TrEMBL record:
It is found in: Cell membrane. One of its GO terms (molecular function) is transmembrane transporter activity. Belongs to the ExbD/TolR family. Keywords: Cell membrane, Membrane, Protein transport, Transmembrane, Transmembrane helix, Transport. One of its GO terms (cellular component) is plasma membrane. Gene3D superfamilies: 3.30.420.270. This is Biopolymer transporter ExbD. One of its GO terms (biological process) is protein transport. It is a single-pass membrane protein; Single-pass type II membrane protein.
Length: 133
């Protein structure tokens, strides 16, 4: 009996040239890459001159007395002039807030007229203040 000897082929893939190319590409991209720095503008911010809070942000207080008289920030104001006076004061105030302070004995219809006048004058918010029982 004759035995046949098979030749086992040992094909080995040589990875050395592939690794060389990969490292060459890595070095190439590292040398040609541009690293971008964050751009910033150096500015000097102004300092505050006053430590007092601004009076412009305080709401305007309208007080409705039981007699029907209207007080705008402590000054008596007739209902007919309320639109005009309130409009001028609101445009000077950046927040445009109004607070309505009334008495239980005050007339409800008068309060509605004041609310309408505040809306026409450009009030952005209107709070109705009450006393705790």
């Amino acid at each position: 009996m004759g035995y046949e000897y098979r030749r086992h082929s040992t094909h080995v893939l040589n990875l050395t040239p592939l690794i060389d190319i990969v490292f060459l590409l890595l070095v190439f991209f590292m040398l040609t890459a541009h690293f971008i720095e964050d751009e910033a503008i150096d500015i000097q911010l102004p300092e505050a001159f006053s430590s007092q809070p601004s009076q412009d942000n305080e709401p305007l207080v309208i007080t409705l007395l039981p007699s029907g008289a209207i007080m705008l920030d402590g000054e008596p104001t007739p209902l007919e002039q309320l639109d005009e006076t309130l409009s001028g004061m609101l445009h000077a105030n950046s927040k445009r807030m109004v607070q309505l302070k009334g008495d239980q004995a005050a007339q409800f219809g008068q309060a509605i007229k004041i609310i309408d006048a505040a809306r026409r004058a450009g009030a952005e918010s209107l709070d109705i203040l009450t006393d705790k029982p």
